[in-house]
Design goal:
Elements: E1 4-9, H1 16-32, E2 35-40, H2 43-49, E3 59-62, E4 65-69, E5 82-86, H3 93-99, E6 105-109, H4 117-121, E7 125-127, E8 134-138, H5 155-169, E9 179-183, H6 191-199, E10 205-210, H7 215-221, E11 232-235, E12 238-243, H8 248-257, E13 260-264, H9 267-275, E14 279-282, H10 290-302, H11 308-322, H12 330-352, H13 358-367
Parallel strand pairs: 1-2, 1-5, 2-4, 5-6, 6-8, 9-10, 9-13, 10-12, 13-14
Antiparallel strand pairs: 3-4, 7-8, 11-12
The structure holds 2'-deoxy-thymidine-beta-L-rhamnose.
Keywords: Glycosyltransferase, Transferase
Catalytic activity: dTDP-beta-L-rhamnose + L-arginyl-[protein] = N(omega)-(alpha-L-rhamnosyl)-L-arginyl-[protein] + dTDP + H(+)
Protein name: Protein-arginine rhamnosyltransferase
């Protein structure tokens, strides 16, 4: 029997919530033939990732997924067999009430973290305080005892084919060819020091920046009032190119084609890992430096097995970037360790891909649910 899943997504900030929910919805539909309805509370933000969306429609189909507008007038017409409450977004009261008649498998999908406590909390049930319902906490993660990472089944094969075709087009690269860098970061990042370092590099640097709030500090660096898609600006060894905000598949290809990727938040972070290219991750800013704890937990896992010099340089750059305070020597130091970091990222992508992906783990959890 084909299952129906309802995924509820509240867009708190930025693109991560919808980025993850859309990826999950699409994979459930395409790889498992599941009927997915994705409830989204902010269609205009979702449109940045899904330009095909029509903001005037209450429901529409996109790539096999039904996207429904979750507004204040929410009416519960039916309850699906599986309900995903993404990132504790709180389901509509009327939907929870309707679930009592035929309780679905109700899952709270949590944010990703490499911290060790995640294993303990993964798949823990939480009974509803008043109603005969229970929800289960599902934590993505990096170890066998977590819910895994989002990864489409043929992603690594697609990436390898794409990178092979790029190599055939440009068989040799040396220190005179430009270092390709993609840059996606929060606007509070220390953009000025980074771009100054790039401009002073011995090797030319081509920095590709998809359109986002980051353009503001970049335009400031170049002394411009604003930057537009298509703009190309040069200072010293650095050329910045402003790209449009890409579709998720195009963004993947950008990450696959670069020598170094700056990513942030949650979803682009994981895509950078699958790209098998060195990256710098800026965690989403949280109170009481919770994001620094997340960063340390991740680096502790991810950098293990590397030689001490590469690990400490890579880690130090991450810390400086996350604290939004780079030193002038950080960029040249990072460049030195790129070859060793490159070899490590390929191995890490391969080894993390041995773990079952998050969507498969969710489907299996539902199959075995009692
Ligand atoms: O936009 P973000 O900062 O989202 C954040 C984080 O997820 C954070 O953990 C969460 O708490 C907060 O939102 C509410 O970063 P993230 O997670 O990388 O999401 C960006 C999405 O946008 C991701 O799916 C990749 C996609 N993307 C494109 O599709 N095209 C692009 O050109 C770019 C730059 C990104």
């Amino acid at each position: 029997m084909i299952q129906r899943w309802d995924i509820f997504c509240r867009i708190v900030d930025n693109f991560g919530d919808i980025g993850v929910c859309w990826r999950l919805a699409r994979q459930l539909s395409q790889e498992y033939g599941i009927h997915v309805r994705l409830w989204v509370d902010d269609i205009p933000v979702a449109q940045r990732l899904l330009p095909g969306l029509d903001a005037g429609l209450p429901q529409q189909q996109l790539e096999g997924v039904t996207i429904a507008c979750w507004d204040n007038d929410f009416i519960c017409d039916s309850v699906a067999e599986v309900v995903i409450e993404a990132f504790a977004c709180e389901l509509p009261a009327s939907y929870i009430q309707a679930m009592v008649a035929t309780p679905p498998v109700w899952i709270n999908l949590d944010y990703l973290s490499a911290e060790t406590w995640v294993e303990e909390y993964h798949q823990q049930p939480s009974p509803h305080p008043r109603l005969p319902l229970k929800k289960t906490f599902f934590f993505p993660g990096f170890t066998e005892r977590t819910g895994g990472l989002l990864r489409e089944h043929d992603l690594l094969t697609q990436r390898k084919q794409y990178q092979l075709s790029l190599q055939q087009l440009q068989p040799t690269t040396d220190h005179t060819s430009a270092l390709r860098v993609s840059l996606f970061a929060y606007p509070q990042a220390d953009i000025a020091t980074l771009l100054t370092g790039m401009a002073a590099s011995e090797r030319p640097v081509q920095c590709l920046i998809p359109e986002s709030s980051l353009l503001q500090p970049v335009s400031h660096f170049f002394g411009k009032s604003r930057l537009c898609v298509g703009d190309s600006l040069t200072q010293g060894a650095l050329t910045v190119e402003v790209l449009p905000f890409l579709s998720q598949p195009d963004y993947d290809r950008l990450l696959w084609s670069c020598d170094l990727n700056f990513v942030r938040g949650e979803d682009s972070w994981i895509r950078a890992i699958w790209a098998g290219k060195p990256f710098i991750w800026q965690p989403y800013l949280q109170e009481e430096d919770a994001h620094i704890i997340k960063l340390e937990a991740f680096l502790g896992r991810y950098l293990s097995g590397l030689d001490t010099e590469t690990a400490s340089t890579w880690s130090a750059f991450h810390h400086a970037w996350a604290h939004m305070q780079l030193a002038s020597g950080d960029w040249p130091q990072l460049l030195k360790i790129l070859p060793a970091a490159q070899a490590h990222t390929i191995c890490q992508a391969q080894s993390l891909a041995e773990q079952a992906d998050m969507t498969t783990q969710l489907v299996n959890f539902v199959r075995n649910f009692q």
